[in-house]
Amino acid sequence: MFIRNIWYIAGWAKDIGTTPIARRICNEPIVLFRTPKGQVGALIDRCCHRGVPLSLGTVIEAGIECGYHGLVMDCSGTCVHIPGQKNIPASTKIRSYPVVEKDELIWIWMGDPKLADPSQILDYPVHNDYKNWPHKHGFYRIKGNYQLLVDNLMDLTHLGYVHKTTIGGDPNTHVSAQMETRETSRGVKVIRHMPNCLPPPTYRKGVPFAGHVDRWQEFEFVPPATVLQWSGAADAGKGALTDENQRDGGFSIRVFHGVTPETESTCLYFWSTANGYRQDDPQATEDLYNDVSTAFREDQVMIEAQQKMLEETGEADLVSIIHDRGRIQMRRIVDRLIEHENLQESAAASA
Amino acid sequence: MFIRNIWYIAGWAKDIGTTPIARRICNEPIVLFRTPKGQVGALIDRCCHRGVPLSLGTVIEAGIECGYHGLVMDCSGTCVHIPGQKNIPASTKIRSYPVVEKDELIWIWMGDPKLADPSQILDYPVHNDYKNWPHKHGFYRIKGNYQLLVDNLMDLTHLGYVHKTTIGGDPNTHVSAQMETRETSRGVKVIRHMPNCLPPPTYRKGVPFAGHVDRWQEFEFVPPATVLQWSGAADAGKGALTDENQRDGGFSIRVFHGVTPETESTCLYFWSTANGYRQDDPQATEDLYNDVSTAFREDQVMIEAQQKMLEETGEADLVSIIHDRGRIQMRRIVDRLIEHENLQESAAASA
Amino acid sequence: MFIRNIWYIAGWAKDIGTTPIARRICNEPIVLFRTPKGQVGALIDRCCHRGVPLSLGTVIEAGIECGYHGLVMDCSGTCVHIPGQKNIPASTKIRSYPVVEKDELIWIWMGDPKLADPSQILDYPVHNDYKNWPHKHGFYRIKGNYQLLVDNLMDLTHLGYVHKTTIGGDPNTHVSAQMETRETSRGVKVIRHMPNCLPPPTYRKGVPFAGHVDRWQEFEFVPPATVLQWSGAADAGKGALTDENQRDGGFSIRVFHGVTPETESTCLYFWSTANGYRQDDPQATEDLYNDVSTAFREDQVMIEAQQKMLEETGEADLVSIIHDRGRIQMRRIVDRLIEHENLQESAAASA
Ligand code: FES
Ligand code: FES
Ligand code: FES
C-alpha cells in the first residue's frame, strides 16, 4: 500500500537522457527518457501494440519509438506514428505520469494527474548551490521495503552498531545524547544537540576549532520518504544550536536521503552529500562522499536481512524501544496520509 | 493450454545419441536417447522406482538404465530389469511417446498414441538436400511463450527495428512493401513480392545480377508452430514471383523455424539456414548461418522482455495494427485446433 | 511435517564459536554461537526489536548483541540490555532451544523444552577416540528432503550405480549379497555379511590379509535421521560376523551419517569417516575421507534431481522393490513417531 497522490523521486536529473531507462516505482513499470529538445517523459513501460517494454526502444524527436515494430509514443503517452498505417486508434493511448525537474531531481506523480501540484515538491536549495555546498550524488537499489530504510534514517542509535568501524564510532555517544522529536508543518524532525563538548577528530581535521563546540544533528522527515540531514558543530557559546544563522564557519555537512518505493519489498535510494566546511577543497567533498557510500552499504546489509526476516515472520510481536520515537512518528504520518487517501476515494466512489 | 494431438519437434536427429538428454515439452519432463542399435526412445523422465530422472542414467542395449538403482526401461517404457529381483510388476510401466525421425528432425507426439500418424508430419526436403541447399542447424531456448516467437516470425515489420543494425536495414522497405496473407491447406502464408526493384547489397554480393530483380519473401505457417521461410530474388521479368520454377539461378535462401512449447512461458527454437545461391561456397553457408544466429538473439531479447511484461499485465488491452494480419490468422488456426480437441474430449467423455 | 520432540544435530561442536552462525533447522531460523566462557546458545535468529537476524550481531560476554541497535540477548533468550533504556519489558524474551554438546556434535531440541532429556541422545564413542578411530568431519547442504538422503543410506544397491567409478565397483556384488533387515531397540539395522570371500583390492591395500575373509556391512538407522555405518573384513573363520569383538586387526571403517531437516526440501548432512585399520597412518585417514567426500557428492546429484522431480510429480505411483526393505522400515518408524506426537498433542489439547 503506497500513498499515490504525492511526489516521488524518479531519478537524478543528470541520469535521464536520450537513452531510455526502465524504473519500477510503486510497483508500476515506467520508462523515463528525455527528448533531444530536453522534455522529460515518464510513461508506462509497455507498448500498446504487443506489450514490449518501451525502454528497449529508441528516443527520437517525437518521443520514444518502440524497439519491436516502431510505434512512436510522445511524452503525453499519445501514439503519434504506426508504421504502415495512417489511422491511429484512440485505444493506443498509454498512461503518462506528470514529472517535474527540480533541484537536480526528477519528481514523478503516481496518483491522479489532476491533483499534481508542483508547488508541493520540497525545496532543496543545496542541490543548486555548488559554491557553498559542493556535493555529489548516489543511487542505491535496496532489497527492502522503503519504510525500513526511512526507519533506519530516523534512528541514530544504529550509528554506533552498524557503523562501528566507519562513521559511527563509540555507541555510547549516540545512545546517551539528549534527543528531541518535534513535529514540523509537514513531517517530523529528530534533533540532537550537544552543547559545549569537545569536537571529534574528523571535525577537528576539517576545521581548526579553538576549543569547545556546540554540536547538532538534525534529521527532518518529509513525506512520503525524504529525510534532510544537517550535522555539524560551531564554536561553543555562539548560539549555533538555537539560531541556524550562527552555524557558518564551523563544521557542517548536509545529506539528502530520498527514498522511493520500487516494489513492496524493494526501494530506490537517492542520496547526496554536501560539504559545508571546506568548500574549496574537492578532496573533502570526495572523502565525505566515499565515507557515506561505505556506511550506506552497511545499512543495506541490515535492511535486506531485516526485510527477509519480516517477510517470513511478520512484525506483530516486535517490541519498540525509547529510541524508536522518531521512527514511530514518521510511520504515523505516512499511515495518516494513506488513510486520508482511502477516505477520499471512498467519498468519490459514493458521490 | 497446448494442442496435444499433433507432432512437435523434440530435437535435431544428430543431437539424440547414446547420451540421454532431458527435455521438457508441453510442460512434460521427457528423456530422449538412442540405443546402440539406433532406436530413438522418448520416455517420461521419471523412474518408476523412486522418481529419479532417467536422463541421469546410462543407455544400454536394452534401453535406459536408471542411474540410482539400476532399473532398466526399454523404448516402450516397459521395465525389463530390476536388480536383485526376478518378478517385474506391471506398475513399473512408464509413459513412452511416439517418435519419428524425419528430415533431420526427431518429431514427438504428445497426445493420444492411437492417433499418432507419421504421414501428418510436414515434409522439408531441404534438410535432405545438401547439394542444392547446403545448410546448418541452430537450437535456442527462449524464455517466452512459443506463440510470441511465432508472432515474431509471422510479422515482417520488426525486421527494420529489431534488426536495424544486422539483417534488417531500412525500416521503410519492410513497412511499405505490398503484403498478402493467404490461407493454405494446413496453415497460412504471408507473402511479400517486390517486382522490378534494385537488388540490395547482400544479394548483389551473392549473385552478379545484370539489372533489376523480382524479389520475394514468403513465410508459411504450419501448425502447431513451424514457419517455412523462402526469401530471394531473380532477374526481373522471368516470372519468378508467380512461378516457383523460375527462381533458380537467382539469390535464394530457406530458413526453417520450428518452435516447441517447453513450458507455458518458455519454448525451444529449432532453426536451420540453407544457402540456395552459392551452393559450392561453404563460407556463404557459414556466413548466412552466422548472420541469422545474431539476428535471432536480437529477437530473443524482445520476446523475453515481452513475456515478462505480459505475465505481469496481460494482453487484454493491447491494440492490433494492420501488419498483424498474418499473426492473427496464425493464432486463429491454433485456437481452432485447441477448441476442436476440447470438443473431441468432451464427446469422448460423454460417450 | 517434522518430529519435534527429538534431538537433532545442529552442527559440529568445533564449528560453533564466537562468530555467530545462521542455520535453519526444521524450517526455523536459528542463530548458534558460543560465549567467550564456552556456553553454547541457540536462539531464534530474530531480534525482538526490529526483527533483524541476530546472526549479523556480535557475541559478547553476556550473550549476543544485535548488530542493528545493540540489544543484548543471553543464551536463554532473555534480553539483558537495551541501549539508552533501563526498563526491559518481558515481551523482549525470545525463543531459545535446549542444546547439548556430546561426541563432537551440538545437538538441539526443537520441541517442548520440558521434554528435552539429554540421556536420549545417541552415543557415538568413535568421535572421542582418536587413538583407535582417527577420523575427520564433513558437512554438506543438500537440496533434498532429509528423508531422501536417509533413503539413500538405507539402501546398498545404489553403490554399484551411483558410485560405479568411485567407491562402488561392480553392481552385482552389491545386488546379489545376502541382506538382513533387523529391528533394533530404537531403529532398524540393515546387515550384509559375506563369509569366506576374497578381500577387494582396497581392503588388501589396507591390511595384508593371508587369505579369505569374512566381510560385513552394517547400517543402523536411529531416528530421526542418523545412520551409523560399520564396514570391514577379518580373517575368515574367526567369527567376526557374529561376534563384534573378533573384528579387531582386520579392515574396518566407521562412517557417521547425521541428517537434519533444514526445510521441507533441503537438509543438512553431517558426516564423519573413521579409520579403524591403519590408525597410525594419517594418510589412510585422509584418503578415506577424500573418497567418501567424492562419493557423497555423487549421491547429492541424484537426491537433488529426485527432490525436484518429486516436488513436481509426487510419489503416489512409485513402485517399491525388494531392496527397499530397510528404507521402508525406516520410514515406518519415523511415521510412527510423528503419529505418536500428533496423538499426544490432541490429548493435551482436549485435556
Ligand atoms: S510491441 Fe511495440 S510496436 Fe509492436
Ligand atoms: S530411482 Fe530409478 S532405480 Fe531407483
Ligand atoms: S533490530 Fe535488534 S536491536 Fe534493533
Structure summary, number of beta strands of chain A:
17
Specify the structural class of chain A: alpha+beta
Proportion of beta-strand residues of chain A: 25-35%
CATH class of the largest domain in chain A: Alpha Beta
> What percent of the residues of chain A sit in helical stretches (DSSP H or I)?
10-25%
Oligomer: homotrimer
**N- and C-termini, Cα separation of chain A:** 24 Å
Low-pLDDT windows of residues of chain A: none
Characterize the overall form of chain A: globular
CATH architecture of the largest domain in chain A: Alpha-Beta Complex
Q: Largest sheet of chain A at a glance?
A: 7 strands, antiparallel
Q: Can you walk through the features of this model?
A:
Three copies of one chain form a homotrimer. Chain A has 351 residues and is of the alpha+beta class. Chain A folds into two domains: 7-120, Rieske [2Fe-2S] iron-sulphur domain (Rieske Iron-sulfur Protein, 3-layer Sandwich); 130-338, Alpha-Beta Complex (Naphthalene 1,2-dioxygenase Alpha Subunit, Chain A, domain 1). Helix content of chain A is 25%, strand content 31%. The first copy, chain A, contains seven helices and 17 strands. Chain A has helices spanning 146-153, 159-162, 164-168, 171-176, 201-206, 282-313, 325-350, and strands spanning 7-12, 21-25, 28-34, 40-44, 58-60, 63-65, 72-73, 79-81, 99-102, 105-109, 135-142, 180-183, 188-197, 213-222, 226-235, 251-263, 266-275. In chain A, the strands form four sheets. In chain A, strands 11-17-16-15-14-13-12 form a seven-stranded antiparallel sheet. Chain A has a four-stranded antiparallel sheet with strand order 5-6-7-8, with no helix packed on it. In chain A, β2 and β3 form a beta hairpin. In chain A, α1 packs antiparallel against α7. The first copy, chain A, is globular. Chain A starts with 6 loop residues before the first strand and ends with a helix. The model of chain A has no long low-confidence stretch (mean pLDDT 94). Chains in contact: A-B, A-C, B-C. Chain A binds chain B through residues 29, 45-46, 48-53, 56, 65-71, 82-85, 89, 91-92, and chain B through 151, 155, 157-158, 160-162, 171, 175-176, 301-302, 305-306, 309-310, 312-313, 315, 317-323. Bound molecules: FE2/S2 (inorganic) cluster (3 copies). One FE2/S2 (inorganic) cluster is lined by residues 47, 49-50, 52, 66, 68-71 of chain C.
